[in-house]
């Protein structure tokens, strides 16, 4: 540990040395005029609305994953001056119009501190000038400068008047700033950096989130800014080596973001820890998943948006459990960056993108459907899967190869028995319009003679132990070494390997297991004290705990660069499991190893949305669920929703049923075809949305509240989302939608439409009034499209009879678009009344603007003018010409809409009735996706989920917001057996519910179950959550002899009752099992001592209770039992979990002599146990 600590402080020591040198040389520092080591050199002022480039925009980047290494994407406000100029519709989205930030005389310029005539804010917490109505004591630390006041200028005004600020401050004079806090403006309008102190700023580690890290260190010129001082100011506190940062937002604020996190979209009440973790089978309460985004996106009561980034790559607690309070805790010191408030959520994300960058423009084929499985074991199987898509006319662009293509799971190799000629396979796939994506994990098998391992060893690229030796841990190939991607030498080595690998016809690469995941360890990763020899600008030599969360980013960056090295004329596609905020610059992602359950189907929407709100727009779930068996109904619901998400891939693991679109029968196959046809019809729109994401950082898929951020009813909607102006209303539950197509919509005009494919099992789609969306024909893959294909415009007029929309087109791959080789078309529609006023007049559709060097293709333009519920008026012309469409009268439209509604309602009812019968035929399919639903027990502060049909197991115990069980339906969780062997009788049998008393009746929940375990034996279980003990539950289990024959003397075989709860560990290395033994000795078992099972017997047994305690959070669970009923206690440390087992004596039972164990679980806080 000492060696590790010395390594970890080198950067801080070096910065202190530099600071001392500057202090002796610069009289301003000696005089106390500078609060940090930042340059005071003035650069050119920002133009536009203030989201302009801060100083240094043209400087070379740090490790960003950008295509040319030194390339920096133009800042949002400079795009209009480039060849990629955006139309006015996008200027509004990106807050580039001055009018969006300035409202003439309706707002007042934010005041600077008294005496600051330069227009630049002070570098310490601002002291309000006299016009703010009082001394420093008038403002609360960690709270907005004023009480929250709705602006008279409306939600589009981002500044508060001096009067409003004065009134707000005057109302609360007992609060004060912490004048130790250092802050300064960076990047652009309303972006501020805060540090705990000047010293903390000097000692902060390098920025690993920004596209151009220098911009975090350089003070912005504020001469053109409307706001020169921050609106929200954090409160800092140092506790030992931890820094706590707290923001207090106004009552009624909503929280989002936090990256990849399970559970609902709105994050109030949740806490996560940024620590990339192999989290197979996670649930909505799992606190650490595969990626880390220490970022909170908040929407204020009036609809404005405000964001906070804790700019640390180390483990960080993001605590949103208290309403309107944002709390970060991580190793000190680190800065926090605030963005806004801005008038719209889009403006906030554009400002964030100015810091962390945007996605690279993906190849268009990557927007098609992807088919994957762990694994298609042979090249023959891969091609058969691809060919079946073509035979069945189901659109698909990509097939994936998981690790079984490798020789012994060794990266960059092929198993010659089953993949004898990968280049020939790639050629065959290309010939039928398929791309192939191949997996590359980071771990390299330790094996002399394996050229990849030998070359890595020769170049000394491996992560090291504290003793300077290459670290080796267990992973798929066995003993494995891990490349140190934080080192440029290693990244260059990897790039060359990828370049050579791509010569096999590889179209894209999948980086998996790159948290990095390590088997047979409690932490599921390598030791924190391992050593990385990182580049100096990244932090230099540091322990693994410093680089852990960015490891996946650097692997993805090296992989991207390797693919680009292989072919500079093709856009690389990389998918990564692990990542850190900013990782979107190199790779897309997915939501990890989810389950085939309705819960995970429902979570896939908010998880993808929050990734988008955290800067990663190219994401989606494993459609159908990775683990477990989907049911037909679940699968079609999932593919219907997933086909409309940014990344659409079906994926499942070994041991599950086949989950290709044709695997569930003919009716499901038809619906899958319809769902994917929808995606391919919408590809022109998707591609345009990806262009916007690439240029500005606006997500492809956004929450419903983007339509109206001030509407509080939209803030928690997880069942719908937006694709630009298209609203998708989903049904991620087993319930039937039948004829009901009424959904709660945002205010304004929303026209429902479909593609003559309306079906109650598929999402509903609506187009916002005022929008035009381009669509195309159904194609089997992106390569089948031609420039002469008909473009169909969906048009919904607003209340003024107008609409506008854009279509982006280029070569679908390559980088010619950067030189202007593209076509960006703005279409507009305007309704004109008829001369006699007797009809609906005409709607004129035309090209308003065109940009780019592409010549407009000679093609047909088809227009669908939506005039009511799935009712439309159509017209056609040559693209580029003006089209005039005659509109029916209002009475004629009303009649058409009424007739269509009646016909479609009846058809949906008939279809749903038929499909319900189809799905009923498959209810016998069990597994994680079974149609049976868990029984919920809820009383006091406890919520339990029980599934009687699989061993009567308890799959969830949630106390307040903390989940205590690990596992899933089929294994793990809380299990009971009837023998010493693992998963012996009683584990998986179907149990019957004997009694279920509801809390609503008497304030407590009681559930009695029993299952036949053979040999005349019954395993019975009673679960009680009592009303007088809100934090305690009791489980009484017994094995009874019900029908044991007389020939056995009335006694059963030898049995033992074994109780096995699998406890989930959020902090495995900081978790203890503590108890006092019968002999009075105190015992502490530690999770950091490695895997293994410990059996405790005799006087060493706990004296009736033992406790699992997380010393990081103080959360604890005490298990109490009767010593007379328990012969053995067993502790087994597993990856990110531990079992604390109770074993009865082993003996026969009769009707009169059952085996019984009755025990309690109490959930509480324990602040006394320390590591």
From TrEMBL:
The organism of origin for this protein: Ceratodon purpureus (Fire moss)
Any GO molecular function: carbohydrate binding
Matching PROSITE patterns: GLYCOSYL_HYDROL_F31_1
GO biological process: carbohydrate metabolic process
Protein name in UniProt: Alpha-glucosidase
Domain DUF5110: 791-866
Stretches assigned to the Glycosyl hydrolase family 31 C-terminal domain: 697-773
Region Disordered: start-end pairs: 1-72
Composition bias, Basic residues: 1-19
Keywords: Glycosidase, Hydrolase
Source lineage: Eukaryota, Viridiplantae, Streptophyta, Embryophyta, Bryophyta
Family: Belongs to the glycosyl hydrolase 31 family.
Domain Glycoside hydrolase family 31 TIM barrel: 360-689
UniProt biased composition (Low complexity): 60-70
Annotated coiled-coil segments of the chain: none
Compositionally biased tracts (Polar residues): 34-43
The organism's place on the tree of life at top rank: Eukaryota
Span of domain Glycoside hydrolase family 31 N-terminal: 240-319
Bias (Gly residues): 47-59
Record's keyword annotation contains Hydrolase: yes
């Amino acid at each position: 540990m000492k060696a590790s600590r010395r390594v970890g402080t080198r950067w801080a020591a070096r910065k202190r040395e530099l600071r001392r040198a500057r202090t002796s040389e610069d009289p301003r520092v000696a005089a106390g005029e500078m609060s940090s080591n930042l340059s005071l050199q003035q650069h050119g002022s920002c133009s536009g609305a203030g989201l302009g480039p801060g100083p240094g925009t043209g400087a070379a980047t740090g490790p960003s994953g950008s295509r040319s290494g030194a390339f920096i994407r133009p800042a949002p406000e400079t795009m209009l001056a480039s060849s990629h100029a955006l139309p006015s519709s996008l200027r509004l989205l990106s807050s580039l119009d001055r009018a969006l930030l300035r409202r003439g005389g309706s707002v007042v310029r934010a005041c600077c501190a008294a005496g600051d005539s330069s227009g630049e804010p002070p570098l310490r917490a601002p002291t309000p000038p006299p016009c703010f109505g009082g001394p420093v004591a008038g403002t609360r630390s960690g709270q907005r400068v004023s009480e929250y006041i709705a602006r008279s200028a409306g939600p589009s005004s981002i500044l508060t008047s001096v009067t409003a600020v004065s009134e707000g401050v005057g109302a609360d004079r007992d609060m004060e700033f912490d004048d130790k806090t250092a802050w300064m403006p960076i990047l652009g309008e309303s972006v501020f950096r805060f540090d705990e102190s000047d010293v903390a700023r000097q000692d902060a580690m390098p920025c690993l989130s920004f596209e151009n890290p220098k911009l975090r260190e350089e003070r912005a010129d504020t001469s053109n800014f409307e706001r020169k001082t921050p609106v929200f100011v954090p409160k800092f506190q140092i506790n030992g080596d931890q820094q706590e940062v707290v923001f207090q937002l106004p009552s009624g604020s909503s929280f989002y973001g936090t990256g990849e996190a399970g559970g609902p979209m709105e994050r109030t009440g949740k806490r996560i820890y940024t620590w990339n973790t192999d989290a197979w089978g996670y649930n909505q309460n799992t606190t650490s998943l595969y990626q880390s985004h220490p970022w909170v996106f908040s929407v204020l009561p009036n609809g404005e948006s405000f964001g906070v980034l804790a700019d640390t790559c180390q483990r960080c607690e993001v605590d949103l459990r208290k309403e309107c309070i944002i709390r970060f805790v991580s190793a000190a010191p680190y800065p926090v960056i605030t963005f806004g408030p801005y008038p719209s959520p889009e403006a906030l994300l554009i400002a964030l993108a100015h810091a962390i960058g945007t996605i690279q423009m993906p190849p268009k084929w990557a927007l098609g459907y992807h088919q994957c499985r762990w694994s298609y074991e042979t090249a023959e199987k891969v091609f058969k899967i691809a060919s079946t898509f073509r035979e069945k006319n189901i659109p698909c662009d990509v097939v994936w190869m998981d690790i079984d293509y490798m020789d012994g799971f060794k990266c960059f190799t092929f198993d010659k028995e089953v993949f004898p000629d990968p280049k020939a396979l790639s050629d065959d796939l290309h010939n039928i319009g398929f791309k192939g994506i191949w997996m590359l994990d980071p771990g390299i098998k330790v094996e002399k003679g394996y050229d990849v391992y030998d070359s890595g060893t020769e170049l000394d690229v491996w992560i090291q132990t504290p003793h300077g030796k290459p670290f080796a841990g267990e992973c798929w190939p066995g003993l494995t070494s891990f490349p140190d991607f934080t080192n440029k030498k290693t990244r260059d080595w990897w790039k060359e390997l990828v370049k050579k690998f791509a010569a096999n016809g590889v179209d894209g690469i999948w980086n998996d297991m790159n948290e990095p995941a390590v088997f047979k360890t409690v932490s599921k990763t390598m030791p924190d004290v391992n050593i990385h020899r990182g580049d100096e600008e990244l932090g230099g030599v540091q322990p693994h705990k410093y680089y852990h969360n960015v490891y996946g980013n650097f692997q993805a960056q090296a992989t991207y660069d390797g693919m680009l090295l292989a072919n500079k004329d093709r856009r690389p596609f990389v998918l990564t499991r692990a990542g850190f905020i900013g990782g979107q610059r190199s790779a897309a992602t997915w939501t990890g190893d989810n389950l085939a359950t309705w819960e995970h189907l429902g979570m896939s929407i908010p998880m993808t949305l929050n990734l988008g709100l955290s800067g990663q727009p190219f994401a989606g779930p494993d459609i159908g669920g990775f683990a477990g068996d989907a049911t037909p109904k679940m699968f079609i619901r999932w593919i219907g929703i997933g086909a409309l998400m940014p990344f659409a891939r079906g994926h499942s693991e070994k041991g599950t049923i086949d989950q290709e679109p044709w695997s569930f029968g003919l009716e499901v196959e038809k619906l899958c075809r319809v769902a994917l046809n929808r995606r391919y019809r919408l590809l022109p729109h998707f591609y345009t949305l990806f262009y916007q994401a690439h240029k500005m950082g606006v997500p492809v898929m956004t929450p419903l509240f983007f339509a109206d951020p001030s509407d509080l009813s939209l803030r928690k909607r997880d069942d719908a989302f937006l694709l630009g102006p298209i609203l998708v209303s989903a049904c991620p539950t087993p319930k039937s939608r039948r004829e009901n197509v009424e959904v709660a919509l945002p205010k304004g005009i929303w026209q429902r439409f479909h593609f003559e494919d309306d079906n109650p099992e598929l999402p509903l789609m609506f187009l916002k009034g005022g929008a035009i969306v381009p669509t195309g024909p159904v194609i089997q893959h992106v390569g089948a499209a031609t420039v002469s294909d008909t473009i169909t415009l969906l048009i919904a007029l607003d209340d003024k009879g107008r609409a506008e929309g854009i279509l982006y087109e280029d070569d679908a791959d390559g980088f010619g678009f950067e030189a202007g080789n593209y076509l960006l078309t703005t279409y507009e529609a305007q309704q004109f009344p008829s001369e006699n006023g007797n009809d609906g007049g005409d709607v004129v559709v035309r090209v308003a603007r065109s940009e780019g060097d592409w010549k407009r293709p000679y093609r047909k333009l088809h227009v669908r003018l939506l005039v009511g519920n799935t009712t439309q008026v159509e017209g056609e012309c040559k693209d580029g010409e003006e089209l005039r469409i005659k509109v029916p009268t209002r009475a004629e439209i009303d009649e058409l809409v009424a007739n269509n509604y009646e016909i479609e309602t009846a058809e949906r009812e008939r279809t749903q009735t038929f499909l319900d019968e189809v799905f009923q035929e498959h209810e016998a399919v069990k597994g994680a996706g079974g149609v049976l639903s868990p029984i919920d027990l809820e009383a006091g502060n406890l919520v339990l989920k029980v599934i009687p049909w699989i061993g009567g197991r308890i799959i969830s115990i949630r106390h307040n917001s903390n989940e205590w069980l690990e596992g899933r339906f089929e294994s793990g969780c809380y299990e009971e057996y009837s023998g010493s062997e693992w998963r012996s009788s009683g584990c998986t049998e179907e149990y019957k519910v004997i009694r279920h008393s509801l809390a609503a009746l008497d304030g407590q929940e009681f559930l009695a179950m029993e299952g036949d375990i053979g040999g005349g034996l019954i395993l019975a279980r009673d679960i009680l959550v009592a009303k007088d003990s809100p934090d305690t539950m009791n489980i009484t289990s017994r094995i009874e002899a019900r029908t044991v024959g007389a020939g056995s003397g009335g006694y059963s075989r030898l049995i033992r009752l074994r109780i096995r709860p699998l406890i989930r560990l959020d902090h495995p290395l900081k978790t203890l099992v503590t108890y006092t033994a019968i002999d009075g000795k105190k015992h502490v078992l530690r999770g950091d001592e490695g895997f293994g099972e410990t059996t405790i017997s005799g006087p060493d047994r706990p004296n009736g209770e033992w406790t699992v305690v997380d010393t990081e959070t103080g959360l604890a669970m005490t298990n109490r039992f009767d010593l007379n009923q328990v012969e053995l206690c067993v502790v087994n440390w597993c990856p990110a979990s531990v079992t604390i087992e109770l074993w009865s004596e082993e003996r026969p039972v009769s009707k009169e002599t059952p085996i019984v164990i009755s025990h309690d679980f109490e959930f509480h806080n324990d602040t006394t146990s320390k590591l």
